[in-house]
Specification:
Length: 142
């Protein structure tokens, strides 16, 4: 990080913190705060799986909005992410599956758009290359 000059020209940065673990709070310096909890109990709070899913969906929809504007397509895209916490090979892992729908588009048209969004969405880029991540174009979210 220290030697990466891209930090000096960042379009946006944020600082986020968690100093209490799963049974506590996470917050961003700009003011948002969420109560955190483990997904393996019924305690109130948001868990890492939910935060990852919301981040991915928000990035996919936001990026798709830009792509649709570039293609002069008037539609409001939708995204759904399913996140599973599973026992992996010697460690626990996340499984992440995303769906993207673009109302008014055929499935083949949506597939083309989704392949574009998959390569441009920053969160998708972070997850791509992992066997635990998949994304698909759909006509309706399930």
């Amino acid at each position: 990080m220290k030697n990466d000059v891209r930090w000096d020209k960042a379009l946006y940065t944020t600082d986020t913190y968690n100093e209490e673990g799963l049974a506590g709070h996470a917050y961003a310096k700009e003011g948002i705060e969420v109560q955190t909890s483990s997904p393996l109990n019924d305690n109130p709070g948001t868990n890492p799986e939910q935060l990852l899913g919301m981040s991915l969906c928000t990035c996919l929809v936001g990026t798709m909005e830009v792509i649709l504007k570039e293609h002069k397509i008037d539609a409001q895209p939708k995204a759904h992410a399913k996140i599973a916490y599973v026992k992996g090979k010697g460690r626990n892992e996340f499984l992440v599956h995303a769906q993207v729908a673009v109302p008014g588009q055929t499935l083949s048209q949506t597939r083309v758009l989704v392949s574009e969004v998959e390569n441009r969405c920053c969160v998708s880029q972070l997850l791509s290359g992992s066997d635990n991540y998949s994304i698909e174009a759909v006509l309706e979210l399930v």
